[in-house]
Amino acid sequence: MLRKIRTIVAAVVFVLITLLFLDFTGTLHHWLGWLAKIQFLPAVMALNVVVIVVLVALTLIFGRIYCSVICPLGILQDLLARLRKKKNKYSYSGEVRWLRYPMLLVFIIAGVVGIGSLFQLLAPYSAFGRIATMILQPIWMMGNNVLGTIAERADSYAFYTVDVWMKSLPVLIIASATLVVLFILAWRGGRTYCNTICPVGTILSFLARFSFLKIRFDEKKCKNCSLCSNNCKAACIDYKTHTVDYSRCVVCGNCIDSCKFGALKYVGSLGNPRESSNSRISSDPNKSGVSGDSIDTSKRSFLLASALLAGGAMAQKKEKLMDGGLAELEDKVAPNRQTPLTPPGSLSFDHFAQHCTGCQLCVSECPNDVLRPSSDLMHLMLPEMSYERGYCRPECTRCSEVCPAGAFHHVDKPEKSSIQIGHAVWIKKNCVVLTDQVECGNCARHCPSGAIEMVPMDENDEESPMIPAINEAACIGCGACEYVCPSRPFSAIYVEGHEVHKKL
């Protein structure tokens, strides 16, 4: 019963949170956004006290169920491990202290001193977000485009095609490498990554040692058949000494399900001072205060199901643009900005870098193709804005709505139109008005804040070409001018970011 409940809840949580990352329509985050907010690390970064207290309480009562039914990377490891069909494929191994605790120390130091790339690389939720955004979402979108093509030929608007493009090659490589490492470790040892590398797993392990409900041996019934150890994906059960390493146990229930003699029970401690900290339990009921036969299975199953459900509840190649079907347009190249652009609501570049976990949820949800992971080594995986494929529409606030880590302060539509994240800069040598001697004015016509107007280059010459004049005080840095500029490959007008955002 324990294994079935855990499997069902984990499957539901995994499917829903994966759909949250795959969705490019912006509709699912209204119903599924809470799944990102109940992840441990984002809750800590956002100082979400309620979620933190609930997750800590769940761990102290039930053990590391977070790793089994809430953490998407943990559930992904279980799915990868299932690909190996061999029975009795695991065995007991001791705790790898020399790797486990140094990894936690490195993670903490990286977070404190601001080495964002290393911090985000080790964060489990962020690792899953990169895999979902960089690998799974493009595949999902390609499948959608197939349906969109079929619907178009049937004169239906049930589906529509979308652009599938490379947001960041370095981050794609990182996501792919992470998936390969997870697959190898899960194939060979089940929860090896979870119990040796993952910092969140190590943090929760300190609490799991003192959990009320634990998997315990009834030595009187145990026949030392080793089935429990051979089916423990955390490699934490030593059947020879009848002990369980609770710091690594993720309460998956495999051991109980595989035991043919009923020697393993998921029971609570009655506070017996003689009980050892490593979970050994005496076979004498008078000494332990607990007997395997005295446990009401139905009540325990109901209690566990309620806890798990509560935890779950908390818990085609792009076609090139053509001009009239005749002239092929050259793709734009991103300008070299002195200060990276961060979205409205992030307050400043430093605030954004300190709070962002690099999960890429804002990147996967951006409807305007403005956000993408940074390829800069110092800020690798940190989302940044660029306007080659779209611009930051003043009416869109989706990135601030979906962020679970507190990297954004939620902004409404009127407020967003008054936040200045940067200012436009005109590059005279690139402007088609001067290079091609043609009239343009695209930047002025499309500026939503009216910060650009066309003025004569020479006020004393009536036939002087009209060039853009930028009012920096009125510009909000939305990038509409940069996006619509016809100059190729470098735009004649681009947005330079501000380290600290201003309100107009």
Could you describe the 3D structure shown?
This protein has 504 residues and is mainly alpha-helical. Helix content is 44%, strand content 11%. It contains 23 helices and 12 strands. A two-stranded antiparallel sheet has the order 1-4. A two-stranded antiparallel sheet has the order 2-3. The longest helix is centred in the first third of the chain and has 30 residues, at 124-153. The radius of gyration is 28 Å and the shape is elongated.
Which features characterize this protein?
single chain; 504 residues; mainly alpha; two-stranded antiparallel sheet; two-stranded antiparallel ribbon; 44% helix; 11% strand
Helix content: 40-55%
Number of helices: 23
Query: For the CA atoms, what is the radius of gyration?
Result: 28 Å
- The separation of the N and C termini measures 59 Å
Query: Beta-strand level of the residues, as a percent range?
Result: 5-15%
Which secondary-structure class do the elements indicate? mainly alpha
- What is the residue-mean pLDDT, rounded to a whole number? 87
Shape: elongated
Report the uncertain regions. 271-326
Query: Quick one: biggest sheet?
Result: 2 strands, antiparallel
Number of strands: 12
As laid out across the biggest beta sheet, the strand order is 1-4
Summarize the topology.
Blueprint: H1 2-22, H2 29-37, H3 40-45, H4 49-62, H5 65-69, H6 72-82, H7 97-113, H8 116-122, H9 124-153, H10 169-189, H11 192-196, H12 199-208, E1 213-217, H13 227-230, E2 237-238, E3 243-244, H14 254-258, E4 264-268, H15 285-288, H16 297-314, E5 322-323, E6 327-328, H17 349-355, H18 361-365, E7 371-373, E8 383-385, H19 398-402, H20 413-416, E9 419-426, H21 432-435, H22 442-446, E10 452-456, E11 466-470, H23 480-484, E12 493-503
Antiparallel strand pairs: 1-4, 2-3, 5-6, 7-8, 9-12, 10-11
